[in-house]
Amino acid sequence: MTTRPIARPIAIVIVTFNSADVIADCLRALPAALAGVESRVIVVDNASGDGTTEVVTATDPDVKVVHRTDNDGFAAGVNEGVAQAAGCDVLVLNADIRLSPGSVAALRAAVGPGVGVVAPRLTDVDGRVQHSLRRTPSVVRALGEAVLGGTRAGRLKLGETVTTPRAYERAGTVDWATGAAWLVTRECLDAIGSLEERYLLYSEETDFMLRAGAAGFAVRYEPTAHAVHLGGEVSTSPRLWSLLATNKVRLHRERHGRAAAALMWLAVVLNSLPRALFGSATHKAALRSLLAFRRWPEPLGEAGDRPPYVCFSAQDWWYHNQAHSDFQLMTRVAEHRKVLLVNSIGLRMPTPGKSTQFARRILRKLGSVAKLVRRPLPDVPGYHVMTPLPLPFYSKPWQRRLNATLVRTQVRAVCAVLGMRAPVVVATIPTAWDVVEPMPRRGLLFNRSDRHSAFPEADGAAIAALEDKLLAGADHVLYVSRELQQEDAAATGERGYFLDHGVDLQHFQRRAELPADLAAIPGPRIGFFGSLDDYLVDFDLLERVAKEFPDCSLVLIGDATISMERFEKYPNVHWLDFRPYAEIPAYGTGFDVALMPWLDNDWIKHANPIKLKEYLALGLAVVSTDFPEVHHYADRIRIAEKGHDGFIDAVRRTLADGGESTPADRRESVLPASWDSRARQLMHLAERQR
User: Fold this and answer.
1) What is the phi/psi pair of residue 559, to 5°?
2) Which of 36, 71, 432, 475 is the most buried (most CB within 10 A)?
3) How far apart are CA 643 and CA 8, in angstroms?
């Protein structure tokens, strides 16, 4: 450790958790701070629920974002970032740090022989120096701060915090420094190993730097490197302050044993007790945690509080397309919480003459009921699916009460067997209201993905009444349509929340080979994949496309609710029927133009098709009919604003020029829209303290 090799690249590792309001400014400051330094930026997100990763991608698309599935602490996030930074020195930053121009070069210049860690000068936004330098923790110093206060004890060198102004004006070696910003060399990382993750927050950097010092790596302070640190949350958060206090005791135990830890515990209690008596909420919380001391802290998030979820879906897992938002969201939630998905209990009873494919619908629902309760995903054992036996009559109150009692009894019985008490209930279908209203629950979310009362075969008045009750009774109402959210604003107020659809980015990637049946179809190919429902798809428009482009192949992939015989007279139309979800990206890869040929009705007016993001994730050129939500994508797709003629013209232009933007730009535009991110937003909304 007497020599220092040639300067390596620096990896900036920023750990975030619900940092959407501060991370953009942190990233914007980096280019000037990194001037002349070879670097990469890695943001490790600890399962934020506020759109942090979307802000990161929008601010700097070149940043590598690592999505973690839970918030298990700052140290775990740093370790993940270091693992992504092989061969680099690492600069660890809090999301509320603003590095000054040239500061990274100044930190690097301070790395001399034997130096393992370098910390900058920290100030607040008004330029006041933050006391970030520390002496080695000891019982005497903890008692000094308890008796004299941190500032006075620090000046007399009887406290852990260095408070002498002169110490912050000159470079030098310190025992350790707070971990808001610190550069650690690759040699030090390789020698010392990972941060101790069991602390979760606070004391992990203390432990690491003290271990570094014991191994011969100096911790250096460099005042010419400067950063603004917003900070301040720990001083106002009882929970964080409790963690700070109890981790001092844990650190002392790990370094010096149980007897020394008992003395440190007493010193920290003496520090908290008088302040708690004078009404400090943070010190009261710290005192409670110290008196109920645990060997290691409970996980972050909602400590010890991980409610199960019951979702009343508008779809059926066993026979609908599993790309639907209900399934995508709940399978992601099930990676963190126990989930019971209740397959659709319907909006109406299919009837001969009124419902398409009457017998088939009845039989497939009975087949779904016969599956009882299953765990269909071996890799997600917390995900359970059941289909209750419903009596889907909703016109008369007594019919609704009977059906609700029947369904609720079945659902509660399954919840009891699975040990799911007081779940978060997510209702996507309005007919769930009578079922869930009397159910004990942690909270109720109405996932208002559509205006179901506009469904053609439903009893519009009865379903609208149920929608109104759910709107009034839900703790939060989630929307994928801004148009529908605006229309409901008077009824929902602040309870309305826009939760956009996501996309399975890993799944929807272009494939190297096309399926054999598609490869046999000549190009260019104008394509559609998804449900060919008569209340969604404009079949007259599809027939017009077939007529207008006889030299192109119109490829239709999906289950159809009407007879497709009308297309048999067109040799260029290829209906491939239903294809499994796993195969859809390979079929989409072969499209030259992808269609969204929707009907102009109230249902579509409030729609936000997941298909659009799937098309874009594949980089496809898209032509769509006009409806409100699609205008948010006008820079990436073509929108036909003049009926069928306009749609045909848009297809013709897209075949000629390849469409709006480029395939790479289309895919990049939906990178922030992962289903994992959407599920974390839902969980944060459902579980945050109200």
Assistant:
1) -70, 135
2) 432
3) 59
Token pair of 321 as six digits: 């397309």
- Angle formed at CA 428 by CA 426 and CA 432, multiple of 5 degrees: 80
Strand partners for 177? 133
In this prediction, residue 98 carries a pLDDT of: 96
CA atoms of 26 and 63, how far apart (whole Å): 12
Q: How many CB atoms lie within 10 A of CB 476?
A: 21
Please state, in angstroms and rounded to a whole number, the distance separating the CA atoms of residues 73 and 154. 29
CA distance 232 to 237: 9
The model scores a pTM over 0.70: no
Residue range 647-662: mean pLDDT, rounded:
95
What φ, ψ does residue 161 adopt, rounded to 5°?
A: -80, 130
Phi, psi at residue 331, to the nearest 5°?
-65, -30
Mean pLDDT of 79-94: 90
Sheet with 593-596: list strands edge to edge.
Answer: 573-577, 553-557, 525-529, 593-596, 622-625, 638-640
Q: E strands, 230-377, where?
A: 309-312, 339-342, 373-374
Q: Is the peptide bond before 524 cis (omega within 30 degrees of 0)?
A: yes
Within its chain, how far is the Cα of 49 from the centroid?
Answer: 6
Angle at 151 between CA 149 and CA 156, to 5 degrees: 95
Three-state DSSP at 172 gives: strand
> Hey, which residues does 182 pair with through a beta bridge?
92
Strands 593-596 and 622-625: parallel
Under 8 Å between Cβ of 297 and 200: yes
N-term to C-term CA, the chain: 53
Pairing of strands 176-177, 339-342: unpaired
Give one DSSP letter per residue of 98-132, joined into a string.
EEPTTHHHHHHHT--TTEEEEEEEEE-TTSPBP--
Average pLDDT over residues 520-538: 94
Out of 142-146, 238-242, 486-490, 610-614, which region has the weakest mean confidence (pLDDT)?
A: 238-242
| Long-range contacts of the stretch 235-238 (C-beta < 8 A, 24+) | 235/282, 236/282, 237/282, 238/281, 238/282, 238/284, 238/285, 238/286
Assign 357 a pLDDT band (cuts: 50, 70, 90): low
Q: Which helix (H) or strand (E) holds 556?
A: strand 553-557
Query: What is the DSSP pairing of strand 476-479 with strand 443-448?
Result: parallel
The CA distance from 241 to 534, in Å, is: 59
Q: State the helix-helix crossing angle for 258-277 and 139-148, rounded to 10 degrees.
A: 10
pLDDT of residue 300: 62
Task: Please answer whether residues 526 and 553 qualify as being in contact, where contact means their C-beta atoms are separated by less than 8 angstroms.
Answer: yes
Per-residue pLDDT band at 612 (split at 50, 70, 90): very high
d(CA 251, CA 508): 46
Asked if 621 contacts 656 with a C-beta cutoff of 8 angstroms, the reply is no
Q: How far apart are CA 37 and CA 42, in angstroms?
A: 15
User: What is the number of residues in the chain?
Assistant: 690
Q: In what order do the strands lie in the sheet with 443-448?
A: 373-374, 383-386, 339-342, 309-312, 424-427, 443-448, 476-479, 496-498
The tokens describing 510, both together, are: 């272009």
CB burial string 575-590: b at 16+ within 10 A, e below = ebeebeeeebbbbbbb
Per-residue model confidence as pLDDT tens digits over 105-116: 999 999 999 999
